Amino acid sequence: MNGAVQPPPTPRPWLGLLAVSLGVALIVVDVTIVNVILAPVIDDLGIGSVEAQWVQESYAISFAALLLLTGRLSDALGARKVFLLGLAVFGATSLSAAVAPDGGLLILARFLQGFGAAAILPSSLALVNASFTGRARGRAFAVWGSTIGAAAAVGPLLGGRLADLSWRWAFGVNIPLVVLIAVGVLVHLDASPRVRARIDGVGGALSVAGLGLLAFALIEGRAYGWFETAEPLDLGAFTWSANPSPVFAAFVVAAVSLGLFWRRQKALGAAGGEPLVDVRLFSIGSFRSGNLVTLLVGVGEFGIIAVLPLWLQSALGYSAFETGLALVALAGGSFVASGAGFSMAASVPALLQVRIGLVLESAGLVLLGLIAGTDSAWWPIALALFVYGVGVGFATAQVTNIVLADVPAHSAGQGSGIQSAARELGSALGIALLTTLFFSTLASDLKERLDDAGFPGGQAERVSGMVTESAGSVIPSLADDPGTAGAAEPAREAMAHGLELTSYICAALLVLALAATLFVRRTTPVAADVVEEDGQGVRPG
Questions:
Q1: Closest by alpha carbon to 205, among 323, 312, 80, 66?
Q2: Are 179 and 92 in contact, with CB atoms under 8 Å apart?
Q3: Is residue 26 scored above 80 in pLDDT?
Q4: E strand or H helix that includes residue 66
Q5: Report for 6-15, 42-51, 405-414: range of highest mean pLDDT
Q6: Rg of the chain (C-alpha set)
Q7: How many beta carbons lie within 10 A of that of residue 234, not counting itself?
Q8: Which of 513, 420, 391 lies closest to 129 in space, CA to CA?
Q9: CA distances from 154 to 161, 344, 509, 533 (A)
Q10: Strand partners, 233
């Protein structure tokens, strides 16, 4: 260090990391918490099933649509500024959602809330990547990654408890937390450097259209039909009821938009312009392969989270709060992985930690599939989810470390935006594929069981349709009706079989992600413009 005396490590970056991780926890919780509070929202605001669906999904669509744009803004404006702007938008829209007098304004608030989330996620990655290096970076990503897994699991528990007070508290609780997080970031993280850059407006519009329509198609495919219109799409005064389905049309427009986006970014880069996404980043082996792993991990991880609560509530009879308690085991496993990853960062490479995580995730899902039934005890469920949660904590944290390890500092925001988009699209694809598989299996398996039980063909098909359309919530009513009581147990068995198959498919997808890690290679040396002080690896402010 040329004889210069370096200042001793301080806790500032770690306190800043805590604030950033809490910000990420907020946006992840808001993905899952709405699933639990939806019933009281419907009752209170008097909305129908279509509006209820948009309350759930408008957030996820706008969230995914803006990630590439906000990633570039993190470079141009500074990651800390974009993070704080995202917090402000998230807090304001949370307040709007909490006081919404009707379904339309609640949907609008949720849609705009996704704008804030899209600013927070990639800028949080850029902040962590810029604030730490060496062993400390692995430890920091262990904390950041475990937050995502834990928050996804805690969401239903928090939602179940807050719903007992009022569904509005599920949004209102965000407001003081946003203030606390903003203060923590301002006090403990220095302003991020800015890159002098123009924002490619045309590219931004193409990326928003492409990612937004792709997310819409993946999320809504089962509802509106993949190719032919299964249910009309109502958007205000406009109704789409013709063929092909709006989902198929969205896929086509998304493919065209993203194709044009890629060509434009490639042309701008070749001409020395300023693309929204520098496609040369994909020449970095660790970045390219790491994003493939991120996509596959998203598919395998989030698909099971979408169907697991249905089995717990409909087949085992858990309440919403009990379902949230069951998922605490997943959160606990994720936090254990965070602690272990913190101590392992100095001796175990990030890639090996990802592989350990994927093996544990797959093992937990196989165990869950083996125990899935209509009378499964709580403790093997908790064990399976704990093992799975440990795997989530390792894999989710360190795959991000791998993706960003060789990305130049001036492109950290772009790299973070691309990795965030890969994660969100992977989760949307996983939810689309796995829920379609689950409900298709449920419908066919239940009809077969009812046929074997002697139900007339027409009644068997009608009951199977009722159970599938209600996602199993009608099972208690079937049990109470003497005319359909005999269908309740076959319905629970079909739900259990659907979860079993889904668990095995998710495990197979994660094994595929494990195989994809074989292609991850470091291609450039770690940047030398950082200060390592006593192994702390904290970049000076």
A1: 66
A2: no
A3: yes
A4: none
A5: 405-414
A6: 23
A7: 14
A8: 420
A9: 11, 25, 24, 36
A10: 240
Q: Residue 502 and residue 499: Cα distance in Å, rounded?
A: 5
Angle (CA) 183-187-191 rounded to 5° is 105
Cα(435)–Cα(223) distance, integer angstroms:
11
3-state secondary structure of 132: strand
Distance between CA 535 and CA 541 in Å, rounded?
A: 17
Q: pLDDT tens digit string along 529-540? A: 333 333 344 443
Torsion of CA 493, 385, 435, 317, to 10 degrees: 40
Length of the chain: 541
Cα separations in angstroms, 332 against 191, 338, 362, 371, 541: 33, 10, 17, 20, 33
pTM reported for the whole predicted model: 0.79
- Looking up tokens 């924002």 gives 199
Tokens (6 digits) for 267: 């042309």
pLDDT tier for residue 498 given thresholds of 50, 70 and 90: very high
- pLDDT above 60 for 286: yes
Among 71-75, 102-106, 253-257, the least confident range? 71-75
Give the model's pLDDT for residue 231. 84
Q: What is the C-alpha to C-alpha distance for residues 335 and 358, in angstroms, rounded to an integer?
A: 16
Task: Measure CA of the first residue to CA of the last residue in the chain; give whole Å.
Answer: 17
